[in-house]
Amino acid sequence: MRERLEALKGEAVLVIGRAQSLDELRETKIKYLGKKGELTRVLRGMGSLPPEERPVIGSLANDIRGCLDQMIAEKEKQLEEASLLEQLHKEVIDVTLPGIKPESGTLHPLQLIIEQVEDIFVGMGFEIAEGPEVETDQYNFEALNLPKGHPARDMQDSFYINPEILLRTHTSSVQIRTLIEKEGSVPVRIICPGKVYRRDDDDATHSHQFTQIEGLVVDRGVSMSELNGVLLTLIEKMFGEGTEMRLRPSYFPFTEPSLEVDIFHPEQGWVEILGAGMVHPRVLENTGYNPERYTGFAFGIGVERIAMLKYGIDDIRHFYNNDLRFLRQFKTV
Predict the structure, then answer these.
(1) Which H or E run includes 182?
(2) From the CA atom positions of the chain, what is the Rg in Å?
(3) How does the average pLDDT of the chain come out, rounded?
(4) Which end of the chain is more exposed for a tag (fewer CB within 10 A), N or C?
(5) pLDDT tens digits for range 17-48
(6) Other C-beta atoms within 10 Å of 307: how many?
C-alpha cells in the first residue's frame, strides 16, 4: 500500500503542475483528495493491513494529503495572479490616445414646442396646470356641456375603460378640475399641456395619441378682444413678428361664441392651428362660477401641428418613431 500511495502522490504532483486553469485545478483536487477521490479509495483498503502497519500508512496518507493541499494552494495562487495579469494586459488604457467624444442628447421637438409655449404664457401671467390622463366622463365631457348622448361626442371618438372612465380626449378636463378647485375665486389664468387620446387611424397627419396645450382665463370683464391679443402674442412669438392671423366662426360645445384660428404660411397659405372661444355659461355654472358676474375664454393648441409648421415636418409619425436621424436635427434648435 505504501507503493500505491507514493505512486498516487507522484501522479497527482504531475497533474497539479500541468494544470492551466482554476477549473482544471479544482477538478484535480476533487479527483485526488475528494470524498470519493483516489486517496480515499486507496485508504479504504487499510482494513486488510496488519494492525502495526495501519498507523504508519495513516501517517503517510496524511503527509501526502498535506503535501498535495499545499501544492494545490500554491498553484491556485499562481493561476490567480496569471489571470489577473492577463486581464490587466487586456484592459490596459493608452492615455495618449484621443478621447471619444460622448454624444449628447437633446429635447424632443414636441418638448421644445411645449417649453416655448409655456415660457410665452408664463410671461403673460399664466400658471401651468396638470391633471390625470385617465379621466372620468364627468370631467372630460359632462362638465364641458357635453352630456351623454350629445352628438358632439362623436367628434372625439374615445378610448373607454368602462362607461364612466376613459383616456382623456383633451386637456379641457384639467381646466374643469382647476375651476372646481378654485371654488369660484378669480382670476384664473392657466395653460394645460399634456397627452390626449382619440380613436383615429394613424397616418401622416393623424395619430391616436397626440399632445395639446389648452388655455383658460376666467375673471370679471374678460372679452373676446383680450383673447385676440393673447393669441396674436402667441403666434408672433412662435412664428415671428408680422405673422398674419385670422379668426373664423366655428362651433364647440364648451365655448360660445367659438372660432378657429388660422395663420398665413408662406408656402401653404392659410393654415388652421387652433380652436378658441368664450367659455360657455353652462361650463361656468357647472364649476361653481356665476356667468352673470364672470366671463372667460379658452383655447386649444395642437402641439404636433405647431411643430410641423415651425420645423417643416411633413409626417406626424416622425415624432413617435424614435428615429435618431430625425431627432439629431434638433440639437441646435
Answers:
(1) helix 172-182
(2) 40
(3) 88
(4) C
(5) 888 888 887 888 787 777 777 766 766 666 66
(6) 24
Query: What's the pLDDT score for residue 62?
Result: 75
Q: What are the cell numbers at 231? A: 393669441
pLDDT of amino acid 44 = 66
Residue 7 exposure: Cα atoms within 13 Å on the Cβ side: 6
For residue 100, the 8-state DSSP code is P
Strand 127-128 and strand 188-197: the pairing is parallel
- Contact of 116 with 239, CB cutoff 8 Å: no
d(CA 295, CA 84): 77
Q: Is 256 assigned a ligand-binding role in the annotation?
A: yes
CATH class of this structure's domain 109-330: alpha beta
Q: Using an 8 Å Cβ cutoff, are 176 and 143 in contact?
A: yes
Q: No. of H helices and E strands in the chain?
A: 11, 10
**Contact residues for 42 (Cβ-Cβ < 8 A; gap 6+):** 1, 4, 5, 8, 61
